[in-house]
């Protein structure tokens, strides 16, 4: 069956035409089960219904013919309200703010270097000493209840 939906035609007309084709096939002695009819209708839809088809497949939905028609009409009305005539693909693009890029680089350098001190860009040659000797224990050990370790 080669009955592709043309862009701009109402989905209701297309689905009703497809139902008529299925009725003609039954008159000629061919039986097509409901799931196959639904999948044939979905495959014959225009590219404007790509999101609907993806949602149907990904969520493993099972619609009857009337449910499918209602859902397609709802999707069509939402997509027309959104863009005027059809769904337009949208994408959110994250752009790096140039003022924040230097901050991120500094953080990456500090975390990547471990305990090694880095020289600053201003020419400051003093380095920070490791203050592990100056640190004093803060209290009792939870495990052995001894102060100082």
Largest sheet: none
Structural class: mainly alpha
Q: Please give the radius of gyration in angstroms.
A: 33 Å
Shape: elongated
Low-confidence stretches are none
pLDDT averaged over residues: 79
Strand content: under 5%
Helix content: 40-55%
- Give the terminus-to-terminus CA distance: 80 Å
The number of helical runs is 5
Order of helices and strands: HHHHH
Q: What's the topology here?
A:
Elements: H1 11-27, H2 34-44, H3 50-58, H4 65-83, H5 98-113
Protein name: Zinc finger, CCHC-type
Region (Disordered): 91-141
Pfam families: Retrotran_gag_2
Question: If you had to describe this structure to a student in words, what would you say it looks like?
Answer:
The chain is mainly α and 149 residues long. The protein has a domain at 11-83. Helix content is 48%, strand content 0%. The protein has five helices and no strands. It has helices spanning 11-27, 34-44, 50-58, 65-83, 98-113. The model has no long low-confidence stretch (mean pLDDT 79). It comes from Parasponia andersonii. Residues 91-102 have a biased composition (Low complexity). Residues 91-141 are annotated as: Disordered. This is Zinc finger, CCHC-type.
